[in-house]
Amino acid sequence: MGSIGFSLHSPFSSLLLCSAPHSTRNPRKPKPFSKFTPKMALATPTSFGFSSLLETFTVNVQRAENRPLNVPLTAPFTIATSRLERVENVAVRVELSNGCVGWGETPILPFVTAEDQHTAMVKAKEACEFLLRSPAMTLGSVLGEIGGILPGHEFASVRAGVEMALIDAVCMSIGVPLWRLFGGASNTITTDITIPIVSAAEAATLASKYREEGFKTLKLKVGKNLNSDIEVLRAIRAVHPDCYFILDANEGYNSNEAIQVLDKLHEVGVSPLLFEQPVHRDDWKGLGNVYHVAKDKYGVSVAADESCRSLADVKKIVEENLADVINIKLAKVGVVRALEIIEVAKAAGLNLMIGGMVETRLAMGFAGHLAAGMGCFKFVDLDTPLLLSEDPVLEGYEEMLEAMVDFCTGTILLDETFEFIDHNSIRHCKRTVNNCLAD
């Protein structure tokens, strides 16, 4: 099967979040479209960059609003520390005085994000009210003010949603796609696909399905029961023998259990590409123990995810040599702080991963642009829109079958490749959207 990619609509396409969500299970009929290769997309460089826009672009907000973004899942999403029955996020819409609109999303994942939906709604409204009463100011100044209103990890997810919407609106204003704004390294990225904590039989069924759809890298949620996790891994290996594994324990193991998993996998000839957050976020000694055994004995990288929620955390990981991969999630630290963390991690020689909570194409599209544009992420985990039984996001990027020249709107992640065509940002709409956010 050819790989499926994603392209962007033209700047004149619209994106709506509607009370009657658009289902991803019935995509519209593909329409002819000329294939746009990465080489072609990168042929015309731009002088616009995020750093320069911070001081040169003046933001004047004429409308800002937030509403719940509630979407059903195809099945409960279970990890070691949480179980999500449905997405209950918050969408943010910002309209500038020039009529350009930006969208952002605040994801809510219990026990992972600090905010629940109610808190996120209250704080997002506070930020929107600030934007409405503020005079025109530079993009850098307004992002700094938002950082003050929504400080630290406590409100990081809300901060990320507001920052996304502002930056998106600015991109729309200057006619530059987000991936170019963040460096223009590429318009293509490749993502894994996640299997949550399920029975061995269910995991095997999912693995078979993903194998047929072309996925080569499976990210497995583990950490609740060591023996069950080993059974699941063996069951998946039986039906998808050529797949690559990423293990994500979401803090579920202690260091001894995490090392046992690696030992048992080695016995059956399985070596994961990456072991993500094997121990509790505050177990720095345990994280270091697992990292050194994984790297020195088995050549397996270890990623800090929940343990990396601030710039100070990254510096501690670097100074004490506790992991060799940092997982960047915009909902953990916000967009601005994520860019700072990326630079520190790169300077220290750490590898980077980009991931998400459980988001729609709003937040995943933004993260995809950032990853493609910066071109510095070794591991990409931006598959969560596939977990949704309905898609409230109309337009935006499109799936593209690489073996064909047809484009199709609606479905999110049926394979591993995004392609961002050189039009504009992922969620733009020229038209005013009134009361169209999902209730």
TrEMBL record:
Ranges where the Mandelate racemase/muconate lactonizing enzyme C-terminal domain occurs: 200-294
SUPFAM superfamilies: Enolase C-terminal domain-like, Enolase N-terminal domain-like
Residue numbers annotated as active site: K221 (proton acceptor), K329 (proton acceptor)
Superkingdom classification of source: Eukaryota
Class of the enzyme per the UniProt entry, highest EC level: isomerase
Amino-acid positions noted as binding Mg(2+) in the UniProt annotation, renumbered to this chain: D248, E276, D305
Protein's UniProt keywords contain Isomerase: yes
Similarity-based family: Belongs to the mandelate racemase/muconate lactonizing enzyme family.
Protein known as: Dipeptide epimerase
UniProt organism field: Malus domestica (Apple)
